[in-house]
Amino acid sequence: xxxxxxxxxxxGWPSPLTGRPASAHASEPEDQFRALxxxxxxxxxxxxxxxxxxxxxxxxxxxxxYEYLCQQCGTSTGSKxxxxxxxxxxx
Length: 91
Hints:
- By secondary structure, the protein is mostly beta strands.
- It is built from one helix and four strands; from the N terminus they run H-E-E-E-E.
- It has one helix spanning 29-32, and strands at residues 40-43, 48-60, 63-70, 76-83.
- The protein has a four-stranded antiparallel sheet, with no helix packed on it.
């Protein structure tokens, strides 16, 4: 019985940048990126994915709450809470 071919992105598949097999244990998500911002989100009013604007909604003790707005009509398309980073100075 033959095994199915490996798919890219799985452990053991060579990385396109280094040619070495990918590690089974990737580094922590915090090491991979600092902030993730949405560029396109589905707008229920426009009925299509549209560019977004990020607006600071609330400053909370645990982090900042942002709202994503459709650039076409201004409808709220989503939100995110950015956790407070450790190492920042507190007043």
